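Section 3.1: Structural characterization of target chains.
Under the original work plan, the team committed to producing a structural model for every single-chain target entering the pipeline before any wet-lab resources were allocated. The record below documents one such target. The sequence was received from the expression subgroup and is listed exactly as submitted; it comprises 269 residues.
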Amino acid sequence: MELIIYLLIGAMAGFAAGLFGVGGGLIIVPILYIVFTQLHYDPSVIMHLAVGTSLATIIVTSISSVTAHHKRGAVMWDVFRNLAPGLALGAFLGAGIADYLSGQGLQLLIGFFALWVAYTMFNGASKAVDPSHHLPSRAMQILAGGGIGVASAIFGIGGGSLTVPYLSRHGVVIQKAVATSAAGGLPIAIAGALGFMWFGSNTEAEIPHSIGYVHIYAFIGISVMSFMTAKLGAKVAHKLSPAMLKRCFACLLATVGSYFIYQGFSTFF
């Protein structure tokens, strides 16, 4: 029964990732939080387990996504090479930072982040890219990658919510920004997942079927289904208005963010 639940989560996350053009991390994390809570896992590590497992599943979806984008020639590999070192190092450090945060603190951070992404996505749904802007130097790109990597690991995402706006702000057309962001999700996911495994191995909490903060059954179930349904979501997306899709996803993120903020603050009262 537990594996069936993870397969359903993967189906929803993969479809949403393909539909909205954003990784499924911000969908996987809240659903896993609810599932792990219902399974009566230690409350102090539930958020860490949800985030770590989310990052592990993004390894698989990133490979699927970047392969499709590469075939269309949309990945800017020179930009990826500049961002990748910072993304990987930042993601590992982000996992370490998340390990020091309490479950409630992690909830609040992810909640406010989801609201911020919802706000920027809703307001920027119809904005065009300014081609007069250019990417900064290689050193600045590496530094930006580090910041994106740290935040992505803490929030359990592949970085698309941060990398796409960063590239778009510097004059990269949206198709290439999304494709390059998909490639950048791979070093984030690998380094972040390894970090959550490493730092989670020291926890005193009993977590069944897991390596550190990565739940193996959830990883397998979600990865298998999301790999298949992402393509279906992408097909549906091409038939709908991109601006409307972004606004719908922004509303979903606002709901997720409000839920986590409520959960985080409720423990203090």
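The chain is about 75% helix and 0% strand.
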